[in-house]
Amino acid sequence: MRKSIIATFIATAFISLNAGASDLLQIYKEALVNDAQFSSARAAKLAGQERSVQGRSGLLPNIGLSAGVTKTHSEFNPDVGPTVTSNSTGRSMTLSLSQPLFNMATWENYEQSKLAVVGSDLQFSAAQQDLMLRVSQAYFDVLAAQNTLKTLQAQKVAVAEQLASAKRNFEVGTQTITDTHEAQSQYDLITAQELAGQGDLDVKRAALRQIIGKDAGDLAILKEGVQLSAPMPAQLSDWVTSAEKQNLSVAASEVSLEVAKREIKKSRAGHLPTVDLSASTGRSTGSSATLPPGVNSPTTIGVSLKFPIFTGFATDSRVRETIALEDKARSDLEAARRTAAQGARQSYIGVVSGLAQIKAFEAAEISSQSALDSTKLGYQVGVRINIDVLNAQQKLSNTRQSLAKARYDSIMSGLRLKAAAGTLKEADLVEVNALLTQ
């Protein structure tokens, strides 16, 4: 038993030591639990689901029970004779029921409540898509800041080596003081850039911490030489059509338009009569000095009709108001469609342009590496100077940094394209997560 416990402890410790860096999917799971904005959206969805129950209540009967006890004391002072006093006690209990038989406004209110539930579900789905985008953007912002800092640190090491070499060569008289000053200037500049890069990385990590509520630790990075796929379908028009029909903001605007139409019907119902069924039964007891104790048990049932004749023009005004609000909702829907279509276009162009940039930067990386090797060889044989080597190193580092940034931007454009089309799911994050490595 003891050996089993020890073995379990060792295995657990080994797993903890080899847990590795957190990947995008793990960070997203943390955000689902800890992100304050998403928690707010989840609570709003739960609250919205109660709207249909409240709307349906107007169609169901209302049942109430009332009870009371009364005591009465009275005095009668005649002009002649003694004062006459009397006391009485009464107890009553009434059970009442009211059932709407015809009330168009109440029915339209119920239909609106069902649409409100649909709207709250759409808002929650939009919040979930927004969380995916925010987590992904914050994640790749950290990776980009790390790449920038590592690039600057590598450049600093190279510049430091060149500075030391320039100083040695100056001391033996093979180089001028100008080379030393140039190397020192490059070193001071790269030191300042390194400090700025460290600060930017801290800011990006703080942004990710704000979403998941804790420090993310080490993050998995993109695989070396990863290849990104082109958007499918390949035609921009397909994405635009999908955005105009399936985008969550468009769907929410369609629901709002339907609610506005129902509001017009509800306002016009102010001109219609209402019919209600009412019933009650009760029991009352009483006694006094003049009446013997007794029990009264009345039961009533009836139908009431109410027909509005004049409401001070309030109903007509309300109808005109709701018609104007319907026009507003229709315009909001058109604006949502145009915004979704524009978002799809921008994201599609971002993906296509990003993939083209990646190919260009990959070619530039090969060329920059060859140029650096040639410059180093020229420096060794004396046909190149120190500043040429530093410039070639910086060019290669900047090219690699730009290549990594282009990959991050292309991935984010792909996610935004799917969000604009209304198809972004957790499975898309799983696909992106497969591109990462420990």
Strand content: 5-15%
Order of helices and strands: HHHHEEHHEHHEEEHHHE
Q: Give the low-confidence spans.
A: 1-18
Number of helices: 11
What do the pLDDT scores average to? 87
Helix content: 55-70%
For the largest beta-sheet, the strand count, sense and barrel status come to: 5 strands, antiparallel
| Shape annotation | elongated
Structural class: alpha+beta
Give the number of DSSP strands. Answer: 7
N- to C-terminal distance: 36 Å
Question: How much is the radius of gyration in Å?
Answer: 39 Å
Structure commentary:
Helix 5 (104-172) runs antiparallel to helix 8, helix 5 packs antiparallel against helix 10 (386-420) and helix 8 packs antiparallel against helix 9. The protein has helices at residues 2-17, 24-34, 36-48, 51-57, 104-172, 177-212, 236-246, 248-268, 314-381, 386-420, 426-433, and strands spanning 62-76, 84-102, 221-222, 274-288, 294-296, 299-306, 436-437. It is elongated, with a radius of gyration of 39 Å. Helices cover 67% and strands 15% of the residues. It is built from 11 helices and 7 strands. It is α+β, with helices and mostly antiparallel strands. A hairpin with a 7-residue loop joins strand 1 (62-76) and strand 2. The strands form 2 sheets. Strands 1, 2, 4, 5 and 6 form a 5-stranded antiparallel sheet that branches. A two-stranded antiparallel sheet has the order 3-7.
